[in-house]
Write a structure and sequence with these properties.
5 strands, Rossmann fold
Length: about 200
């Protein structure tokens, strides 16, 4: 973005209804749960299952899903490295707003580049960005390929496909690693819920 494209004459407006007041009303803290991993690692499935568990506990939640975001907010972006960087930047800024709204925000994005995830982390107050690495071997992800994307990528029909023709950089120090190929969904959900309880985010 050039200087001529940047917003000017803008001032952050401080609302009287603060994040702290929203959290008190919600009876839980807000946080960003950033699920990352290869396509087929179970990010979306796990994020929505965790949201369901939190909803049953009367928590305010919202899932930002990779495919859904590209239908609207990021519908103008492709899958080049530059567009992927911008995609994650936009999602990070959106997640930050949800954090201020007192919501437990769950994001399900491959987000393959470590630097992009660290940029999003830097947007949040310390401890409010929890990186959850859905670790799953590539060969297992390929067996779960209901969209046939890996097959197309290996045939050269999809360029810049993470794990095949574009790298995935594993998190260096995620707050939680979940081995989604080794445990059933309920067990994986309980690992996330247990982390939230241990950190005092939910009761």
């Amino acid at each position: 973005m050039t200087d001529s494209q940047k917003s000017t004459n803008v001032v952050w407006h401080h609302a009287t209804v603060t994040r702290e007041r929203r959290q008190q009303q919600n009876n839980h803290k807000s946080v960003v749960l950033w699920f990352t991993g290869l396509s087929g690692a179970g990010k979306s499935t796990l994020a929505h299952a965790v949201e369901e568990s939190l909803y049953q506990r009367q928590c305010r939640t919202f899932v930002l899903d990779g495919d859904n975001v590209r239908h609207g907010l990021c519908g103008d972006l492709g899958f080049s490295k530059e567009d992927r960087v911008e995609n994650i930047r936009r999602v990070g800024e959106l997640a930050k707003l949800f954090l201020e709204a007192g919501v437990i925000t769950l994001t399900a994005f491959i987000s393959p580049f470590r630097s992009d995830r660290e940029l999003v982390r830097s947007l949040m107050p310390h401890g409010d960005f929890l990186e959850i690495y859905c670790e799953c071997p590539l060969e297992v992800c390929e067996t779960r390929d209901v969209k046939g994307l890996y097959k197309k990528a290996r045939a050269g029909k999809i360029a810049n496909f993470t794990g095949i023709s574009s790298p995935y950089e594993e998190p260096a120090k995620p707050e939680l690693v979940i081995h989604t190929s080794q445990y059933d969904l309920d067990t994986c959900v309980q690992q996330v819920i247990g982390m939230l309880q241990a950190r005092g985010i939910i009761i």
